[in-house]
C-alpha cells in the first residue's frame, strides 16, 4: 500500500511492582505500545508490549540495571507495522577527541568531571573518535592526550595520587543505541569504538550547516 513499515516484536516482561513505573517509562521512549497488564497479586506484574525491533537494541542491559536484576523478559518477532517514528535520542552530547595520540591520565583526570569516559590511559585515539559522553547537550571537542608538564620528582609522584573513575565499556548493542545520526561504530575482534561520521571538526561544522533547514523570506 506504499506505506513505510518496520519489523515489530511482541515483548513480555515480568517485574516487581516497584519497578513498573520505570519500565513503563523506558518502553515509552522506545515507542512501545502496552497491550495488556496483569497484576498477579503476589507483588509481580506482567506487561505485554508491541515494540519496534530497533527499540529493543540494548534494552536488556538497561532493563536488568533498572530492575536490579530481578526483571524477566522475553520477546518474539510479531510482524510488520507502519513506521513508529523517530526514537527519542539521548539528551546529552559526545566528548570528541580533537587529535591523534595516546590517552594520558592527566587529561582524563580533568575530563571526567565533564561526563562519562569510554577510554582509559594508554588507549590510542584519533581526531573524531568519541572518548566519552558529555554531561551536557551538544558535542565537546577535547584533548584526551594532554600530559602534565613535570618540573621535579615530586610532581611526577603526584600523578600517582590521581583518582580516575573506571571507564564505561560499551558492548556492541550498547554502542549502537548510543549513536546519533552523525556517529558510527567501529567494531573489531578486540574493541568497539565510536566515532563521528565526519572526523574533522571543520567537516562536521559544514555538515551541521547543510542539515539546518533553510528559510525563505516573505515576498
From TrEMBL:
<dbReference type="InterPro" id="IPR042116">
    <property type="entry name" value="TypA/BipA_C"/>
</dbReference>
<dbReference type="InterPro" id="IPR035651">
    <property type="entry name" value="BipA_V"/>
</dbReference>
<feature type="domain" description="Elongation factor EFG">
    <location>
        <begin position="5"/>
        <end position="89"/>
    </location>
</feature>
<dbReference type="Pfam" id="PF21018">
    <property type="entry name" value="BipA_C"/>
</dbReference>
<dbReference type="InterPro" id="IPR000640">
    <property type="entry name" value="EFG_V-like"/>
</dbReference>
<dbReference type="Pfam" id="PF00679">
    <property type="entry name" value="EFG_C"/>
</dbReference>
<dbReference type="InterPro" id="IPR048876">
    <property type="entry name" value="BipA_C"/>
</dbReference>
<dbReference type="InterPro" id="IPR035647">
    <property type="entry name" value="EFG_III/V"/>
</dbReference>
<protein>
    <submittedName>
        <fullName>Uncharacterized protein</fullName>
    </submittedName>
</protein>
<feature type="domain" description="TypA/BipA C-terminal">
    <location>
        <begin position="92"/>
        <end position="199"/>
    </location>
</feature>
Amino acid at each position: 500500500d506504499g506505506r513505510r513499515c518496520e519489523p515489530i516484536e511482541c515483548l513480555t516482561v515480568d517485574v516487581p511492582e516497584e519497578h513498573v513505573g520505570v519500565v513503563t517509562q523506558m518502553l515509552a521512549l522506545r515507542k512501545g505500545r502496552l497491550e495488556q497488564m496483569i497484576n498477579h497479586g503476589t507483588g509481580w506484574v506482567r506487561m505485554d508490549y508491541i515494540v519496534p525491533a530497533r527499540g529493543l537494541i540494548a534494552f536488556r542491559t538497561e532493563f536488568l540495571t533498572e530492575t536490579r536484576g530481578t526483571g524477566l523478559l522475553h520477546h518474539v518477532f510479531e510482524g510488520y507495522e507502519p513506521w513508529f517514528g523517530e526514537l527519542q535520542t539521548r539528551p546529552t552530547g559526545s566528548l570528541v577527541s580533537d587529535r591523534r595520540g595516546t590517552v594520558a591520565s592527566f587529561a582524563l583526570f580533568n575530563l571526567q568531571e565533564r561526563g562519562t569516559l569510554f577510554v582509559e590511559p594508554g588507549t590510542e585515539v584519533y581526531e573524531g573518535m568519541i572518548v566519552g559522553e558529555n554531561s551536557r547537550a551538544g558535542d565537546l571537542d577535547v584533548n584526551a592526550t594532554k600530559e602534565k608538564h613535570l618540573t621535579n620528582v615530586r610532581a611526577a609522584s603526584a600523578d600517582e595520587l590521581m583518582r580516575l573513575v573506571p571507564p564505561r565499556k560499551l558492548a556492541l548493542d550498547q554502542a549502537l543505541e548510543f549513536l546519533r545520526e552523525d556517529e558510527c561504530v567501529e567494531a573489531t575482534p578486540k574493541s568497539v569504538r565510536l566515532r563521528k561520521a565526519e572526523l574533522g571538526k571543520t567537516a562536521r561544522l559544514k555538515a551541521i550547516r547543510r542539515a539546518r533547514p533553510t528559510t525563505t523570506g516573505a515576498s
